[in-house]
Amino acid sequence: GAVVSQHPSWVICKSGTSVKIECRSLDFQATTMFWYRQFPKQSLMLMATSNEGSKATYEQGVEKDKFLINHASLTLSTLTVTSAHPEDSSFYICSARTREGLGEQYFGPGTRLTVT
Amino acid sequence: AQTVTQSQPEMSVQEAETVTLSCTYDTSESDYYLFWYKQPPSRQMILVIRQEAYKQQNATENRFSVNFQKAAKSFSLKISDSQLGDAAMYFCASRTSGNTPLVFGKGTRLSVIA
Asked: pLDDT grade, residue B111 (50/70/90)?
């Protein structure tokens, strides 16, 4: 089956610094990647949709200058949390959609971000 | 806009028994897809089952089956012969055709009692 990886799986950073999370589709080309945020015991909240070679489309309420998304290739998308604050601490999940057929959406294992 | 509603925050089932998780959705589109995802403690999202709205036949995957009631916009998940490994959060999700994202319900936490 299709595999999506995320790196790092867990990161701790100091308030005010930036952190980058990578999302890779390992065995398929993904024209579209999605970034979700999940708070404890809550559902996944869509942050943005990223199409290869295009600017990401952000959901209402998501600061695009704070959460920078780059989708430079068909297998890599990155989420950079800039000037992180403790309230940015969360679980971030990326998802990549295959180009073919139903357009199955596969999920990465997630990244736990803790801002101190 | 699509919405997905899961009205059961928590459910429990005895091992080997059957449990049904409820989900309703709302969409103005005629072409859409419905999904159930499982999120175990590892937090890796796992696709359990999917249903294309144009298909009348309910999808089944081994011990997992759905009851898709299109007119009622209902999409419940039945887990038969429940196993301890079925304990997880279950999310119902939908999306329309085209390059649209999945919309998730709030989830149902399923406990399996040995």
From this structure: very high
Rounded Cα gap, residues A70 and A76, in angstroms: 8
CA distance A74 to A24: 9
User: Cα A19 from chain centroid?
Assistant: 12
Is B43–A110 a contact, with Cβ atoms under 8 angstroms apart? yes
Q: Which of B102, B106, B108 to mutate to test the interface with A (most CBs of A within 10 A)?
A: B102
pLDDT of residue B1: 80
Residues 6+ apart with CB under 8 A from B69: B75
The answer to whether the CB of A110 falls within 8 A of the CB of B43 is yes
One-letter identity of residue A36 = Y
User: Please, which residues bridge with residue A54 across strands?
Assistant: none
Residues in chain B within 8 Å Cβ distance of A95:
45, 102
